[in-house]
Fold this sequence. Notes:
The protein has helices at 6-29, 40-54, 69-107, 125-140, 143-152, 154-157, 168-176, 179-208, 214-233, 238-258; strands spanning 113-116, 121-124. With 259 residues, the chain is mainly alpha-helical. It has one domain.
Amino acid sequence: xxxxxxxxxxxxxxxxxxxxxxxxxxxxxxxxxxxxxxxxxxxxxxxxxxxxxxxxxxxxxxxxxxxxxxxxxxxxxxxxxxxxxxxxxxxxxxxxxxxxxxxxxxxxxxxxxxxxxxxxxxxxxxxxxxxxxxxxxxxxxxxxxxxxxxxxxxxxxxxxxxxxxxxxxxxxxxxxxxxxxxxxxxxxxxxxxxxxxxxxxxxxxxxxxxxxxxxxxxxxxxxxxxxxxxxxxxxxxxxxxxxxxxxxxxxxxxxxxxx
Length: 259
């Protein structure tokens, strides 16, 4: 007769439950994997599959009851860890979208916006296009596999336990989020400089030839020059984006160590 006590039952349940919570929280916030266009059932199924693969390789988890205060604390802790690591990688794509917003504003395309189901808000068309290019580059360079490998590594560096996490990991995320404006401006800077020079030239021209309508001439010129520059610059953003992805994965490691 095989007998199973409560401690063994909790051990088997927790060996799957707590890794699943961290993985599901990461997949809900990470880029590519957490897109709104992916069905929720597919996300949950992938999270269950990864948890089943990862759980046997982890150390024995604490034997607290999942319904106890300690068990709920561990669930909340694993959820926060997954969300934190997912948001760190989400910043990488926020950089590209911010650059698209800056460029669209200078080109005069800021009014051309539509509802983006990924962000749940109105997004400039150019920002959406650059985000799609970034997604294709991310998949082409196997960024999704590197991201998952770095995340699974977190179970070794930050094992599941009832010990509280350090708030220094949140400080790492806040510091990394500054790259949204810094790197976004650097990515858009070549086009912004050229388009700003055109705006200054048209302003001087308007002062010398006041009968010339800048609003009638300036918009087509800025739009045409901006499209030509995008045709030249977009194929060259791959090295910049690759370095940004590497920095995001390294930031995940720093956040794990800080936690």
